[in-house]
Design goal:
43% of the residues lie in helices and 15% in strands. With 339 residues, it is α/β, with parallel strands linked by helices.
Length: 339
């Protein structure tokens, strides 16, 4: 069933994207956790990123947090990796003690954030690491995995293989938060010089697919605002929320990576605590989530046919916390296959 920006769409976004918006106040938690060296890496003029170096021996692995979180999201998980890997964690721009340039969709776009990771790799001489990203960090993984696949040994999506990481032909419609930025880029592409046949194909795509898709999205959103306005995400406008919004507006379309990948999905997720108290409501929520997430995991597998997709039933969105042993086992098995 196609996803629409109804309450179920908002639920998916809360699970897969907006957890960080709702929990942004937790950014920087556990800042006193021991076991790492902190440094700051300049990735462009005036922008420095916080990098935690947990040490360890073996293949380098870089951890990227979800929206609203910084490198300290992995304070408990990172030390479990050090026996096999040299572990780093990066706080993306706008979070933790990293620089927070004035937000717009260009300096917080998926490719810009991906370039930041590449900048850290270059500065610290990290060659062909494994990148492991949680939630919205899937877009940074896909940005690098589509543009510079030879720069990494592999990608690990930690409940991160959603529309921001793969939105190709196999993916179900994901709603206005994804389609609007995609439409904007398609419209901007019309001003780029190109062959007349290519231009005609761009126009046809806009008329037959993209414009119609966004029109349907907006009609659904209009109905939602009229009938259930509280289900639309509304937040007090703060500098952090503006940065979150810039990241959401900076979505890009990725149609499949070109390097080894492991995607771990919570399929289905554990129900929210308020739902879990009522067995009937929990069962209904779980079944709806199963249908939604299974469709998305299937789409990721179809669009990334060489990826290894793992589904863990009953895991939380923070799958590396709720199912730490499972995730460690899958990462180790995956990296053992890499050259």
């Amino acid at each position: 069933m196609p996803m629409r920006p109804t309450r179920s769409m908002v639920t998916t976004l809360i699970i897969a994207v907006s957890t960080g918006i709702l929990c942004a106040a937790q950014t920087g938690a556990n800042a006193s956790a021991p076991g790492y060296a902190e440094r700051f890496v300049t990735v462009e003029p005036g922008v420095k990123l916080q990098v935690l170096d947990w040490g360890g021996s073996g293949r380098p692995i870089i951890l990227l947090a979800g929206l609203g979180y910084d490198a300290h999201a992995f304070d408990s998980f990172a030390p479990k990796l050090t026996p096999r890997y040299h572990v780093y964690a990066i706080s993306r721009r706008g979070f933790g003690t990293s620089s927070a340039p004035a937000p717009n969709c260009e300096n917080y776009s998926a490719d810009r954030l991906g370039d930041d990771v590449l900048g850290v790799m270059q500065s610290l001489d990290i060659e062909r690491p494994v990148l492991a990203g949680h939630s919205i960090a899937g877009e940074e993984l896909s940005s690098i995995g589509t543009r510079y696949p030879d720069r990494v040994a592999g990608l690990v999506y930690l409940d991160a293989g959603y529309a921001y990481a793969y939105y190709g032909e196999h993916a179900p419609p994901a709603g206005w938060m994804f389609d609007a930025p995609a439409l904007r880029r398609e419209l901007e592409a019309l001003t780029t010089p190109s062959d007349p046949k290519e231009k005609a194909a761009q126009v046809a795509q806009l008329l037959q697919v993209n414009l119609q898709r966004v029109q349907k999205d907006l009609q659904d959103l209009q109905k939602q605002l009229q009938t259930d306005p509280d289900s639309v995400m509304n937040f007090k406008i703060t500098p952090q929320v503006r940065i979150n919004a810039a990241i959401l507006n900076g979505f890009e379309i990725f149609e499949g990576v070109r390097c080894p990948a492991l995607a771990i999905f919570a399929d289905p997720h554990s129900p929210p605590p308020d739902m879990a108290k009522d067995p009937a409501k929990a069962a209904q929520w779980t079944e709806e989530d199963r249908k939604r997430i299974t469709t998305l995991a299937d789409a990721f597998q179809a669009g990334n046919p060489t990826a290894h997709v793992v589904r863990i039933a009953g895991a939380s969105h923070f799958v590396f916390r709720s199912n730490e042993a499972d995730v460690l086992r899958e990462i180790n098995a995956f990296t053992a296959t890499l050259p």
